[in-house]
Amino acid sequence: MHHHTRDLIATERCDVLVVGAGPAGLTAAITLARYGIDVLLIEKHRGTSPFPKATGVSTRTMELFRSWGIEQQIRAGSMRVRPVMTFARTLLDEPAFAVPFGYPTDEQALAQSPCTPCCCAQDHLEPVLLQHLYGVGGRVRFGVELVDLVDTGDAVLATIRDETTAAVERVEAAYVIGADGPRSTVRAAAGIGIEDLGTIGDFVSVTFRAHLTHRLAGLPAAINTVEMPGAEGVSCRPAVTTGGSTPGSGIPRPANGSMTGHRSTASS
Ligand SMILES: Cc1cc2nc3c(=O)[nH]c(=O)nc-3n(C[C@H](O)[C@H](O)[C@H](O)COP(=O)(O)OP(=O)(O)OC[C@H]3O[C@@H](n4cnc5c(N)ncnc54)[C@H](O)[C@@H]3O)c2cc1C
Prior knowledge:
- By secondary structure, this protein is an alpha/beta fold.
- It has one domain: 3-Layer(bba) Sandwich (FAD/NAD(P)-binding domain), CATH 3.50.50.
- Helices cover 19% and strands 32% of the residues.
- The protein contains 6 helices and 14 strands.
- The strands form 4 sheets. It has a 6-stranded mixed beta sheet.
- Strand 12 (221-226) and strand 13 form a beta hairpin.
- Helix 1 runs parallel beside helix 5.
- The longest helix has 14 residues, at 122-135.
- It is globular and about 65 Å long.
- The structure holds flavin-adenine dinucleotide.
- The site of flavin-adenine dinucleotide has 23 residues, from helix 1, strand 2 and strand 8.
C-alpha cells in the first residue's frame, strides 16, 4: 500500500464495491442492487465503452435480461446474423466455408426457452445495462480509478482517484468485485497471479459506419473473414450502431461517419 494514502479516512461506504463498468461489472452490480444490496460501481473511463467489441449474447443471458425487463431494449440494438464465422474472398463472394459458433438456431432455442440468442454490440448493450442499474438503485461513479486495495479482515479499504481532479479518496466496503478486465488491479491486489501463455497475435480494431446489408445476399454472418490477397486477416463484424449513448450517462461517442480504431494484443 502506498504510504501517502495510509491516513485517508473513508469518505464513502457501501456493501459491495464493483470495479469496472464492462458487461461483467454492470451485470454484477445490477444483480446485487436488485436484491437491495447497497452497491457502488466505479469505472476509470468517463462512460461505458464507445467500441462495439463482442456481439454474441447467449440464450441464457437473454433469459436473464428478460427477467430484468430489458430484453426488448437490448433487441432494439441487435442485428439478425447467422451464428457462424465465414471465410470468403470478399464480403460479396460466396463463402468458401463457415464455422458455427455452437449457438442454437432460433427454432432450437425457442423449443427450450422463451428467448433466442442475440447479436448486440457492447456499445448498445452497456448503456442499456447502465440505465437499468440506475433504475434499481445502483450508485455509479465514472472517471474514478481504483489504485489500491487493502483487506482489513472485517472490510475492504479501497483507494480511488478521480481522473479529472486527481483527488484521492477512500471507500470502505464489505466486499469488492474485480470486474476490471484482463489487467485487473483487484486481482493483483488480491495477490492472484497469472500464467502468461504468450501472444497469439496483434490486432487492429477499426469501427466504421457503412450501410452494407442491402449489398449482401441474405443474412450476414456474425464474423465475416475476408481472404482477398492483400487483405488477409480482415475480419468484419456487422453491428447496429444505434448511437449507444443514453441521455445523462455521459458517454463519449465518436462523431458520425468517423472511423475509430485501437490496437490490441490477444493472449491465449
Ligand atoms: C473487436 C473485439 C471483438 C471481441 N469479440 C469477443 C467475442 O466474440 N467474445 C468474447 O467473449 N469477447 C470478445 N471481445 C472481448 C470482450 O470485449 C470482453 O470479453 C468483454 O468486454 C469483457 O468484459 P468485462 O466486463 O470482463 O471487462 P471489460 O469490458 O474489459 O471491462 C473492464 C472495465 O474495467 C475498467 N477498469 C480497469 N481497471 C480499472 C480500475 N483500476 N479502476 C476502475 N476501472 C477500471 C476498464 O476501463 C473497463 O471499462 C472482443 C473485443 C473486441 C475489441
